Amino acid sequence: MKIISVVVPVYNEEDNIEHFYRSIAEVFDKLDYDFELNFVDDGSKDHSREILRELEKKDQRVQSIFLAKNSGHQLALTCGLDHADGDAVIMMDGDMQHPPELIPTLIAKWEEGYDVVHTIRKSTEGVSVLKKLTSAYYYKVLNTISTVHIQEGGADFRLMDQKVVKAFRRYREHARFIRGMIGSMGFKQTYIEFVAPKRFAGVSKFSPRKMLHLAVDGVMAFSSLPLRMGLYIGFGCGFLSIILFLHVLVSKFVFNDAVAGWATITACILFFGGVQLTVLGIMGEYISRIYEEVKNRPLYLIGRDRPKDEPETN
Ligand code: UDP
Ligand code: MG
Is the CB of 300 within 6 Å of ligand 1? Predict the structure, then answer.
């Protein structure tokens, strides 16, 4: 029988884990596939760990990896993908916002011959208007400037064939926007739509800061336009300053009407100073990313909790 790995990053989800586990087991009871449930505990500070250990004891199909610290959703997912060896791998959230009832559809698409089956959130119940708007605009901007198409409303809920997972393991950049990375990999990809329900329990673990980080990573990873934009602004301002300089020369030598007023000069200095700082800032963003990558640090560290685990890294 074919095995499906289900990879689930969890961070402080003590009230969700058991319910999630039961729903997954229920779904697979009706299917002709075996499953393994790979939880990645992303440094939880509540009772998630104990609950996961209990589940492991109760059901052999459950395996958990405990990260040494909170490394973020994208790295926790990466760790899960590194350790999932089913014939197909499904990644999903553990808070029931990615409905397990969709799994049979994902598998059916895979059996049709697709290597990657993405899901797209048509809408999310109970999400704020602000989040909806910012998300919609973000994808519009991202797609205008990016080199690959990134689907609006894309969720990190998807099925990947084992061969795609193996290929994905070779991508080792630190600043990762998994949605875009997989989209850019090729293979036969398709998507299905769903409506995301509210969280089963608890609150979102994505702080506005984490969201902003992910958003900036998405732009920086798939576009060098911000860098080029700095260059264009620089060119534009250079051109403007030449015209201004000509204007000053003409005023002085043709009309003998010396330009009075330090205000103009100050304004110019401020303007160009601003432009230079903007460009430097953009360059700084990229340079800090280059620095992160060349350090080549492990993407995540697995805690030493379980005796049978060697301290694995990557
Ligand atoms: N998550 C994680 N590490 C984090 C933040 C979130 O592993 O630093 C997990 C979380 O437990 C959940 C999934 O990632 O299973 C999605 O997070 P959440 O539901 O908070 O995000 P939202 O649905 O609000 O975008
Ligand atoms: Mg959620």
Answer: no
Show the 3-state SS of 124-179: ECCCCHHHHHHHHHHHHHHHHHCCCCCCCCECCCEEEEHHHHHHHCCCCCCCCCHH
Domain edges within the chain: 3-223, 225-295
Q: Is the CB of 73 under 6 A from ligand 1?
A: yes
**pTM to 2 decimals?**
0.80
CB 20 within 8 A of CB 201: no
pLDDT for 89-102, tens place per residue? 999 999 999 999 99
**Side chain identity at residue 243, one-letter code:** I
Pocket perturbation via mutation, ligand 1, pick of 205, 211, 300 by most ligand atoms within 8 A of CB: 205
CATH T-level assignment (fold) for domain 3-223 = Spore Coat Polysaccharide Biosynthesis Protein SpsA; Chain A (3.90.550)
